[in-house]
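Sample pair:
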Amino acid sequence: MTSPLFSLAGRVALITGGNGGIGRSIALGFKAHGATVVVTGRNPDKNAAIAAELGDGHAVIELDVRDEQAVDQAVADIVARFGSLDILVNNAGIARRVAVLEMSTEDWNAVLETHLTGSFFCARAAAKAMVAGGRGGKIINIGSMYSLLGPPNLVNYAAAKTGMVGLTRGLGVELGEHNIQVNALLPGWHKTDLNRALLDGPLGDEIRHKTPARRLGTPDDLAGAAIFLASSASDFVTATTVVVDGGYSVTDRRWEE
């Protein structure tokens, strides 16, 4: 039985990019804790798979978060169908690994627009719906350990994810009077379909040696933290970040097995 403190019963949650990886785990965790879940994604096959996992009473919609009008319409449709929007998880994102000296303006814009501008569009639309609903809400932005660190060949990603922290702080301060809490999760190295090939090689071994938890993360490691930030357990937590990286970002040494 879910503790009332962490129950999401009666709440409607929107998870962008929720058809795989971290977003999928959060979506399924929210469902298990009683939420009505709406997932967005752009891949039809992955959308169909998560729709089957969620089952009846939930929804999966195709959405490009960079499309301002489409975001506004999606939020309006969710409220019309389910009666409210109580939780938003800004998870949609892409990565383009290019050295800065070779990075095109298109590579820069695509990453910033998907992560940061898309999250702003979704947060603005969701916040309007939450204010109109009169019972507050939760916005959870998915940042990264690269909100804190400087990665090679990913200056666009690091800038976008650092911007997510600033977006979180600004939204949290401004929306607090409406009983809307805004926080960010900063994942570390969590093995997903997107990075599995990378982490199955020497890099994965090196990361394990530098992580106090002595393992890589999984998408499910994010679900518990997201449930906390989506539930009434976090009603006095806002405009802050929760790092979920097994201690990777603060360690100063490498452990040998």
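DSSP finds eight helices and seven strands in the chain.
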